[in-house]
Amino acid sequence: xxxKSKFEKFIAVAAALALWQLAxxxxxxxxxxxxxxxxxxxxxxxxxxxxxxxAVAFSFIRITFGFVLAVVTGxxxxxxxxxxxxxxxxxxxxxxxxxxxxxxxxxxxxLIWLDSSSLPIFISxxxxxxxxxxxxxxxxxxxxxKLLQMAEIFRFSFKKKLAxxxxxxxxxxxxxxxSVALGLTWKAGIAAEIIGIPDGSMGEMLYNAKLYxxxxxxxxxxxxxxxxxxxxxxLFMKIINTVFKKLEDL
Length: 250
Hints:
- By secondary structure, the chain is mainly alpha-helical.
- The protein is built from 10 helices and no strands.
- Helix 3 (50-83) packs parallel to helix 6 (119-141), helix 6 (119-141) packs antiparallel against helix 8 and helix 8 runs parallel beside helix 9.
- The longest helix has 39 residues, at 158-196.
């Protein structure tokens, strides 16, 4: 089944690339749509440039830091909100506003308060926070009340409840939240860089490619961002699954 799934995905990717190539041939204008082969050639040139790796590192460190900060803060907030209803009520308007406000509005507003190099950290944090918070809080609230009653009878401490009751229940919610938030974090973080244009970022490279109508560079950097975000997501999810497995084995 795994081999079949991989083969199907390979066929889907090949079909998408063929359609892309066909569209570029029909349009016959590189400024509008460059061919996948030329993007690959340009990407192979970019990876040998010194500023390529410094730009990737610049964006990766900041967006990753913003995401990890959101995971930690969202977990703490959700735990506090579950234990104290007043905390949930107090946090409700903030989380609602963050979820409802367009990313671009936050980026422009934050440019007034923050340096452009700090902008992707804050925007990544802000976009991931309500997703992590809401999912973990939902996981807490969906815990079987009968298990909690049993824990009360046997006088479990909160730490024991967390380890034996809450964690197994929260796990699918937490993993789902991280999976969704990771993609949004990278989109929002790069968007913040394109608008804020911090020196040496991938967002700046995208902006310059658009400015000089370098379509091959634009596609090359887009492919790089997609690949880096996918690799980071797979690595992070593997770490999370390993951590949960170790906690369950305790």
